[in-house]
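Saturday, quiet lab. Running sequence design on the structure tokens for the scaffold JK sent over.
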């Protein structure tokens, strides 16, 4: 019985040692996602979506088939839709990061 209790204690202590490391890594991943989303949002605010689409390799390929991705009729709607979703991703990631940290602290 003492041997089993010792092994269970070792296992639990190993898990408790790993929790701060995992929290740190999760925070880094969320920070990276927020940074990428913010840079995409800034790029979309400063550069028209039409210019970005025309630089893509697939634009010329699809244009050769008569598909114009840079048609102004829907680009402004598409750009606002992308910006709104990126803002939502940043807000959601920030709130998840705050909640995850609080849950882990309470658990430990």
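Result came back. Writing it out in full:
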């Amino acid at each position: 019985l003492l041997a089993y209790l010792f092994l269970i204690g070792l296992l639990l202590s190993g898990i408790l040692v790993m929790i701060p490391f995992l929290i740190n890594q999760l925070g880094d991943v969320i920070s990276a996602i927020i940074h990428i989303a913010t840079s995409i949002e800034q790029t979309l605010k400063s550069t028209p979506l039409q210019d970005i689409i025309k630089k893509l390799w697939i634009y010329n390929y699809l244009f050769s088939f008569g598909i114009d991705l840079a048609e102004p009729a829907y680009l402004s709607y598409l750009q606002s839709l992308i910006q709104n979703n990126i803002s939502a991703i940043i807000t959601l990631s920030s709130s998840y990061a705050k909640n995850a940290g609080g849950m882990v602290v309470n658990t430990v």
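Notes for JK: The two ends are 26 Å apart (CA to CA). The longest helix spans residues 2-46. Ask whether to fix the surface positions before the next round.
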